[in-house]
């Protein structure tokens, strides 16, 4: 069968042969046993309903074995034989170009070069799934190949509920992931309901088909590291950034360090992840001996090198060794998947990678104790460095949150002493260290409307990406000539980024690019793309963004951590964002429970939009992109963030139809005598 025929057949009527478990692939760890006997039966019934009754007897023991062996039913037998990657858009079958663009993006999320655990349909973060199983993938691709522009595909946490009549202005796909009743959103609830096959963790861009490989987080980390050194009043050159994680998105950190121009040491316990990033050129050197690592870092400092170094081992050991050896760390952070601490997101010190995987599956309570013990030790080591002048920030991965829950000393008392949370913290939920959003991304970027705007060239041609880079750079330079001084630095950083995008070889998977832009920049760049498509200079382009943006996400410990009016635990903004995008022209929209900070800790929304060179696309992009950004600025301004007040007042001057409720600032002196 041809590729198009395989897509159109959906779930095959004749069972394919069983597939061998491929040990060369990076697989998801075994999930802990959490289902009762009756629930295991229910999980099997749920899985078998995708298949004709005559196949149930053959598939039942196979699915039962998967559930017992891996803690999930992935349906490995139904994994397609064709290569998984983002093909040029014309290679996909179907009536709708918009639907074809979504098929392209789904396959990009599952590309072996992009996905963390491709055979388990997990893109990044240890549990960020595109689908729960291969039957869902096959059925979804079939629906997309059949649909027209007056239908909408409805996706329930990876499950394609079906095609419904709609209209040309409606989204082609509406996605939800993990939208639980609030009281059923604890970590073990995810384990249970995911094992049952009724919900999934879509992360942010994994379950919304908008991940573009680690490039997105490279850019965000580059901006964060540059601004971190600016806060210190230092040049990055010859100075040290220490962090952890080389898996999915965290693998971007050493590349970002190189672009920012510092020395980066990134620890990782998974040898396959280290090998992958080193072979891709995303990390320069690899060490597994701490003494040799110390010697190499000291040499790099002496010579003011720009170099990225992976340490194959636990980051706790690095922090402790650098303290003992008096290696000064300028910037410190962590990007292990601590939103998922008990199922492979964080590996405790004192255990090998293999020992930890066995313990998390077979002795989950003991594993949890080991993780929390390691977090306490981790925090203690970091505290020793910050006492010497290290600037440490939480990179939105729930490091401080989980460390606090473990009893680590990540708070400070009124005497400025490190302590555990009980009888110690001041200022409510305050940690001793800031989230990078509180200190850097919030006030410097999000409040001004700058966030991760991205696009994918559906032709698959590198030359199209090069042309879009040139178009975007020209637009930004033109905007910068008249932009206010408050946003000059953001503009300059992004022009520098886009000029160096080609030479840094950031493409992994689809021909995609990302930069930080505000509503004006996004709209003008998108219009310029649409004109170039109309003239035949480039093929169709998919627009999107990370959910980690101005208005897409409500996350009290990350995206909205610099909201101080008490509303950071509300999720109105994210819900309004996705509703507003859906009737303003998005090709697809998504809303998720869970992201980089954890299940039950965040609600986030995303979109995708196809530009095809038409007048309709031009109208849609202006309406949707303006709302997508300014919804968030309005909320941030109401929280009394001065940068957001400036940005929304500026937006109201340029768009007369926009009228936003502004806060009246209360003089603190009024409270002195009451």
From TrEMBL:
Which cofactors must be present for this protein to function? Answer: NAD(+)
Q: What is its main location?
A: cytoplasm
Domain annotation Urocanase N-terminal: ranges: 84-210
Cofactor: binding comment: Binds 1 NAD(+) per subunit.
| Annotated ranges, domain Urocanase Rossmann-like | 213-440
User: Matching InterPro entries, A to Z?
Assistant: Urocanase, Urocanase-like, Urocanase_C, Urocanase_central_sf, Urocanase_CS, Urocanase_N, Urocanase_Rossmann-like, Urocanase_sf
| Entry GO terms, CC | cytoplasm
Catalysed reaction per UniProt? 4-imidazolone-5-propanoate = trans-urocanate + H2O
**Location(s), subcellular:** Cytoplasm
Give the UniProt family note. Belongs to the urocanase family.
- What's the protein name? Urocanate hydratase
């Amino acid at each position: 069968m041809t590729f198009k025929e395989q897509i159109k057949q959906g779930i095959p009527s004749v069972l394919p042969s069983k597939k061998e478990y491929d040990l060369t692939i990076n697989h998801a760890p075994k999930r802990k046993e959490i289902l009762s006997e009756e629930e295991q039966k229910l999980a099997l019934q749920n899985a078998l309903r995708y298949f004709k009754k005559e196949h149930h007897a053959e598939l039942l023991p196979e699915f039962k074995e998967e559930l017992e062996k891996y803690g999930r039913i992935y349906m490995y037998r139904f994994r397609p034989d064709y290569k998984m990657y983002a093909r040029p858009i014309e290679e996909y079958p179907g009536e709708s170009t918009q639907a074809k663009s979504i098929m392209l993006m789904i396959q990009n999320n599952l590309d072996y070069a992009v996905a963390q655990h491709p055979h388990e349909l997990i893109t990044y973060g240890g549990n960020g799934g595109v689908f729960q199983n291969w039957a869902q993938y096959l059925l979804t691709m079939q629906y997309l190949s059949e649909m027209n522009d007056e239908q909408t595909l409805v996706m329930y946490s990876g499950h394609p509920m079906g095609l419904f009549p709609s209209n040309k202005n409606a989204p082609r796909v509406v996605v939800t992931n993990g939208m639980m009743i609030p009281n059923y959103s604890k970590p073990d609830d995810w384990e249970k309901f995911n094992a049952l096959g009724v919900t999934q963790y879509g992360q942010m861009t994994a379950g919304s088909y908008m991940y573009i490989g680690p490039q997105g987080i490279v850019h965000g980390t580059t901006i964060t590291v540059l601004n971190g050194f600016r806060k210190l009043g230092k040049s990055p050159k010859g100075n040290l950034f220490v962090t952890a994680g080389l898996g999915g998105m965290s693998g971007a950190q050493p590349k970002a360090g190189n672009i920012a121009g510092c020395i980066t040491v990134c620890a990782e316990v998974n040898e396959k992840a280290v090998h992958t990033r080193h072979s891709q050129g995303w990390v320069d050197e690899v060490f597994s001996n701490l003494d040799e690592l110390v010697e190499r870092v000291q040499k790099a400092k002496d010579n003011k090198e720009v170099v990225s170094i992976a340490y194959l081992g636990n980051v706790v050991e690095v922090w402790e060794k650098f303290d003992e050896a008096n290696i000064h760390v300028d910037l410190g952070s962590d990007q292990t998947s601590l939103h998922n601490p008990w199922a492979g997101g964080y590996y405790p010190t004192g255990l090998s990678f293999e020992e930890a995987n066995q313990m998390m599956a077979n002795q989950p309570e003991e594993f949890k104790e080991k993780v929390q013990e390691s977090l306490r030790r981790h925090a203690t080591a970091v505290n020793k460095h910050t006492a010497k002048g290290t600037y440490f920030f939480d990179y939105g991965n729930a490091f401080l949150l989980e460390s606090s829950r473990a009893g680590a000393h990540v708070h400070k008392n009124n005497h400025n002493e490190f302590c555990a949370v009980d009888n110690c913290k001041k200022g409510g939920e305050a940690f001793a260290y800031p989230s990078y959003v509180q200190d850097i991304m919030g006030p410097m970027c999000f409040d001004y409307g700058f966030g991760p705007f991205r696009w994918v060239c559906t032709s698959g041609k590198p030359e199209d990406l090069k042309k879009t880079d040139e178009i975007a750079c020209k637009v930004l330079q033109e905007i910068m000539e008249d932009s206010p001084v408050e946003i000059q630095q953001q503009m300059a950083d992004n022009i520098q980024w886009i000029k160096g995008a080609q030479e840094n070889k950031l493409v992994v998977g689809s021909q995609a690019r990302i930069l930080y832009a505000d509503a004006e920049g996004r709209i003008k760049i998108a219009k310029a793309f649409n004109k170039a498509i109309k003239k035949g200079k480039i093929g169709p382009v998919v627009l999107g963004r990370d959910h980690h943006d101005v208005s897409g996400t409500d996350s009290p410990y990350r995206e909205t951590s610099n909201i101080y009016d008490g509303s950071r635990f509300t999720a109105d903004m994210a819900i309004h964002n996705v509703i507003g995008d859906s009737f303003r022209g998005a090709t697809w929209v998504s809303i998720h429970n869970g992201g980089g900070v954890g299940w039950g800790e965040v609600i986030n929304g995303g979109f995708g939009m196809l530009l095809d060179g038409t007048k309709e696309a031009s109208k849609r992009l202006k309406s949707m992109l303006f709302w997508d950004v300014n919804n968030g600025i309005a909320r941030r301004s109401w929280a009394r963030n001065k940068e957001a007040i400036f940005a929304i007042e500026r937006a109201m001057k340029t768009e007369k139809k926009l009228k936003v409720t502004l806060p009246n600032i209360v003089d603190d002196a009024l409270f002195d005598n009451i």
